[in-house]
Write a structure and sequence with these properties.
Chains A, B: This is Putative damage-inducible protein DinB. Chains A, B: Belongs to the DinB family. Chains A, B: Keywords: Metal-binding. The structure is a homodimer. By secondary structure, chain A is mainly alpha-helical. Chain A has five helices and two strands, in the order ααααββα. Chain A has a single domain, classed as Four Helix Bundle (Hemerythrin (Met), subunit A) (Up-down Bundle). Chain A is 55% helix and 6% strand. In chain A, strands 1-2 form a two-stranded antiparallel ribbon. In chain A, α1 runs parallel beside α5 and α3 packs antiparallel against α5. Chains A and B meet through α1, β2 and α5 of A and α1, β2 and α5 of B.
Chain lengths: 162, 162
């Protein structure tokens, strides 16, 4: 589980660096699909990651809108602040937590029950999906997107045969 | 590992159904980003999945181009044919395979060594990333994209507290 969070954090950091060379109006421009913009997407990714991990722990989630975080610096600072809580939770993950129930009241009054392992994979896939959207918008800006490769990031050390 | 392959196969099937209601010219239209089109992306996803899993097994990979598979039916048939080989491999996965080395000769003559666990996660993330691109293009077509939610697909059964 930790491996894919690490992957996402590495790729996210590369996107922040990618954003440094792009005019802010391009980062804020309203676009087709997803949540509708590059910086808004990065904000949405960190919001969703933190909110789910807060919810698993029975804590309140994040209720603020993008309007209060509409610059690269503000998004990075929010990410750094949230990471202080997200990272220890991810690092403490063990397989015994996979099937723990998360009770999620639905708007229709019913109670959905998800496994914690589903929630964690949801957070991971959620980010990768939205990063895919950024890769399309990057080409609209005329700039090569960040690579999404998992391979080549030293995420797992292969055990060499002797 | 199996959970996220299952997720991807479920989402992929939903995209095939999504494509059924879209004129073929929209599915084939050249678009900005990724491999440049909706059906081409689905072809690319199944090509990459199969090719990596063939490579891990020391078998030859897939060398054909999209030109031979440029209809929804042909892509679905190719997927079904590949699945016969991909699925048993995924189902046979166990943690002991995570750090097995995969030797990958590079164009510059060097030898890269990846862990099998990295390759498998690469296949998973590769699909989710490209599906994110489809979700943008879906809006260009004017049609709601398939949900990327991991939650709600019964991928893990929560263990209810007694």
């Amino acid at each position: 589980m930790q491996i894919m969070f690490r992957y996402n954090w590495l790729v996210r950091e590369e996107w922040y660096r990618w954003c440094e060379d792009v005019p802010e109006e391009e980062l804020l421009r309203i676009r087709t699909g997803g949540v509708g913009g590059i910086l808004h997407t990065l904000f949405h990714i960190i919001d969703v990651e933190w909110s789910w991990i807060r919810s698993l722990q029975g804590k309140s989630d994040f209720q603020e809108g993008f309007d209060s975080y509409n610059s690269l610096e503000k998004v990075r600072n929010l990410d750094a602040a949230f990471r202080l809580e997200v990272q220890p939770f991810v690092h403490s993950w063990d397989v015994g937590m996979e099937t723990r129930p998360f009770y999620d009241p639905q708007p229709d009054g019913k109670m959905a029950v998800d496994a914690w392992g589903e929630v964690m994979r949801h957070i991971i896939a959620h980010e990768i999906h939205h990063i895919g959207q950024l890769s399309v918008w990057a080409r609209e800006v005329g700039k090569k997107p960040v690579s999404a490769n998992v391979i080549g990031k030293d995420l797992i050390r292969p055990k060499l045969l002797s």
